[in-house]
Amino acid sequence: MVGSDDLGKQLDSLHAISVEIAALHDISDINKRALHYCLSLTSSEYAFTGLLVDGPRVMDVAAVEGFEPVDESFYALFHLMAVRSSVVGVTIREGRPYISNDVLHDPHTVGQPPGHPPVRKFLGVPLLVGTRMIGMIGVANKTDGYGARDERLLETFANQVAVAIENARLYERQQNMIASLQQLHARLGEAERTQLLVRERERIAAGLHDHIEQEVFAIGISITSLLEGNEFDPLVAEQLRAIRQLAVQAADEVRRVVFALAVAEHGDGNLVSEVRSRLRDLERRSDLKTHLVVRGAASSGLETIRDVISSVISEALNNVERHAHARMVLVSLRHGDHHVDVVIQDDGVGASDLVLTTYQDSYLHFGLRHMRQQIFDLGGTFDVSNGEETGTIVRVSVPLPPDAT
């Protein structure tokens, strides 16, 4: 057990550690140094940093310390995860530290993906910038288990790490802005101005869709719920219905503006606009919550395979809507130097073993078979499997044409 004097020394040492981390500007360097100290401060075997990428529903395991997977593809397959009720998820979902010194029998346990090291004891704390959560830090397998002192120590440290990460993000944005301004100054011709305008229109359209339109739509849903679940004076009820109609009209107007802004363009913007539009329509006609994560910059060669990728995403989303009985679907689009990777993941009932083993040749499952053939015709890979916890995952990787890279 750590004595009060030892704990005081540990807390005092956090000042020097925090100063060191605050001086770093690269998030990967911050994560690496922070996890190194997390292992030391808590005498843990493993540590990880998870950063939220789409509100509190999707987390990117941005860094891991103390664990080297045998399979090199492990991190690529599992680093992006939907936040659910699990031993890890408690910290994000409830916004508080969580200790489990018997993970195997913990009521929140949902299992671990193949290749993951065994986690017997766990401590997770949120990464907070003020009151805003940006992710979490987790440590595992302290020999004698975690207690209140470990929680206090790690929580104090996590607050400093969160500020350092946020400062690094601001620094990165500042550097990108400076670089953009320098480039704009050097090459400010008509083509550059047009391209800048297109990107800004796309950014504004995405902001309107992802924030304003969704919030206005939520207002209408909330008013409908109030009207259905409560008895109101007729005059009050009529006023609520009028407000609901205004919310519907406002949402429609925002949608018209989004479509006007999201002009067709080559490459990434066009594909992203199409997928975002499909997800928006899917939310409107169903109870599904949708998320889109885009990584990397699109190559000019994407245009030659865009239609196939768009078709596969649409078919996969149709399957989720019709068969999955899901509450959430996540579409991840990653642009590499020589290929494009797509993942469509839901939290529904999953596919039967019969479907997974026969769809490649069965004419009863034309949609899956057709998707697979389209990708194979482009020299890509296509895989359908059930998730570790729930739902179905469709993974697609398509090479870019050689002359496009």
The tally of helices reads 11
The structural domain count equals: 3
CATH architecture of the largest domain: 2-Layer Sandwich
Q: Helix fraction?
A: 40-55%
Q: How would you spell out the order of helices and strands?
A: HHEEHEHEEEHHHHEHEEHHEE
What does the radius of gyration come to?
24 Å
* Poorly predicted sequence stretches spanning 5 or more consecutive residues: 262-269
Can you lay out the helices and strands and say which pair or pack?
Layout: H1 4-22, H2 27-42, E1 46-52, E2 58-65, H3 74-78, E3 80-82, H4 89-94, E4 98-100, E5 122-129, E6 132-140, H5 148-186, H6 190-229, H7 234-261, H8 268-285, E7 289-295, H9 302-324, E8 328-335, E9 339-346, H10 353-358, H11 366-377, E10 381-386, E11 392-399
Parallel strand pairs: 7-8
Antiparallel strand pairs: 1-2, 1-6, 2-3, 4-5, 5-6, 8-9, 9-11, 10-11
